[in-house]
Amino acid sequence: MPTSIQPVYFENAVGRITEDAAGYALIRYHAVKREPAELRALLTHLGNLLLRRNWQCILADMRTMEPLSTPEKILLMEEWYGGHIPRPERLCTAYVLADNALTRLAIYELQQEARKHHRSDAFTSLEEAHAYLLTCTQP
């Protein structure tokens, strides 16, 4: 279950990445305004972890996340989903919805684009997201 204590793989001002024993990366976003460079660093480490472990699955806990800025949206679309940040070609992502309505809207917009090439869904709890990831196939 994603609520168990896992060793921290990487952490910066934007969030914390841990490795879940079920075979996916768990990223918990902090409740802060972000700089695009810090978000890029977090995503770079996330991609490295996925490649190193040969994983495709991500649980993104966005419950406390602040709304995304326009530069952050562009970074996510062009660099993460565009494949400029090294990561597996195909992803399966479970999003735990943000408490903030503006954040939920921004993530929903990104998710629509991401679904063109990746499997993803949004949930209201970590337990639901965890169960979804267990249905994703690994290479």
Describe the structure in your own words.
Helices cover 37% and strands 22% of the residues. By secondary structure, it is an alpha/beta fold. The protein has a six-stranded mixed beta sheet with strand order 1-2-3-4-5-6, with helices on both faces. Strand 5 (92-96), helix 3 (101-114) and strand 6 form a beta-alpha-beta unit. 35% of the residues are buried. The model has no long low-confidence stretch (mean pLDDT 90).
Key structural traits:
alpha/beta; 22% strand; 4 helices; globular; 6-stranded mixed β-sheet; 139 residues
Draw up the topology in text:
Layout (H helix, E strand, L loop, with lengths): L7 E4 L3 E6 L3 E6 L6 H18 L3 E5 L8 H11 L11 E5 L4 H14 L4 E5 L2 H8 L6
Parallel strand pairs: 3-4, 4-5, 5-6
Antiparallel strand pairs: 1-2, 2-3
